[in-house]
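I would like you to help me understand the sequence and structure tokens below and explain how sequence relates to structure.
___
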Amino acid sequence: MGPRGHTVLFQLPLSVTMLLVTELVAMLHPALDWSPPLILSMGAHLLLLAACALIPWERLPARAALIIPFLDCLAIGLTREAADQYLAVLGFLLVFPVVWLSASRHRSGIVIAVMATVLSAVLPPIILGTDVDPADFIRVLLLPAILGAVALTTYGAFNVISFQRHSLEQRETQVRDLLAVSQDREQLLGTILDTVSVAVSAVDGEGRTTLTNHQYSSHLTRAVRKDPAAENPSGITIYGRDRVTPLPQEQSPRSRAARGESFTDELLWIGSGTNQRAYSATCRLIKSPDGCRSGAVMAFTDVTALVEALEVKDQFVASVSHELRTPLTSILGYLSLAQDEDLDPDLEEYLTVIRRNTQRLLGLVDDLLATATEALSISPRPADLAEILAHSVEAARPKAHATGTNLTLDVEPGCQFKGSFDPDRIGQAIDNLISNALKYTRDGGSVTLSASANEDTLYCCITDTGIGMTEEEMSQAFTRFFRAARLHSSTIPGAGLGLAITKSIIENHNGTITLSSSPGKGTTVSLTLPRTRVGAASMEKIS
């Protein structure tokens, strides 16, 4: 409102109250003596109100307006003194200018208020020449004390109110700043989410969607058509890795996220027909400050092109492997016939070298064919893991002896290692692991096979003192055709298929395989096999 508006606002209650009290007394006491001093004092009030409205207070010092409440006190004293006993109540109106002076939040305002009340009691009798009785002396003493207390109370109250207002303004400023920062972060988050090519969806603890980005809706629109036969409420059919078996509602990513499950890079197929798309799904949980689960964030990466490219690659490898296998088999057959003849020793040695390398090449082709067709035949039957380990160790002992490697087998005594599994495939897996351990162990090192068992599970560990692996290498060790960069330039042979095939064999038996390793400190491969293989088909895909 400005200084002028504030001055009028403080003066107006006094002027209006003075007018109302005077009119009320005039109505109740028509014989009121309107003497010239009374009329002049009433005019003084009107003049002060006009001064509040007309004087440009904004051009004057900030405390110049305090002259108005000071003069109000004198005008009230004159009005009370000029009127008869019916207007003696006008003395209570001194509260208005006293409050005004105290509300200035300056201590000097209290002093001015007390001085003004004293003068309002002392000067009017002198100016009007009226008699001073003992009641006037009592009023001179009591009125400043009472109104001084009012001034002090008002001063304290206004200071408290001012402090609270200042605090509220600071808090409002802080809240406004935090809101602006929050809006900026929200806009930044929205921009980031809409910029990345990954579909993102956040859900609360009940599985209700709380946030999605543009890619999430656009990917689903492209891949999904409402399917009335879908088992989930959104009308979206989600298929497993085989692209034909729908996932139960409780196994959908949203349901698993609502239950508090985390998962990484799980392959899903969404949609049907030509619109079917492959997605790699990942979920991470949202924790509240007290550690409770409050929701989850799911990310879906469209990997359709990658999956199709891998399928094309596998088809190519399978086709080439089939074409290579036939002539290699024929070569081995004719080599066997040739070696049955009575040959020169040097020629016999040449044919042996050819046969050995042809068999190695044929084994590599078989591995390529197995990985390309993504299938391994498993024929479970009663077998003994301890016997398989013993045979694999004996078969590898010549190679270990040639490099000076100490190859040992440590089977927990008193344990039974019999179970239902494919001994040929498990033997193949153990052979692969022993072969890797020997290849990557320096001459003079050691490779140890240990086995234990409980009522339900068989355990086996292959530990070597070889070159070891880094964390990054371990994360990719079971990937087909993967070999560490340092091995490409070394003389250690291999195609990067052994661990992939071994992992497939173990998982097809519902077992597990894990790695632990440190560079330069060797590697430990841990296997678990259930004694009885449950619920698996005879043809399984390689992970």
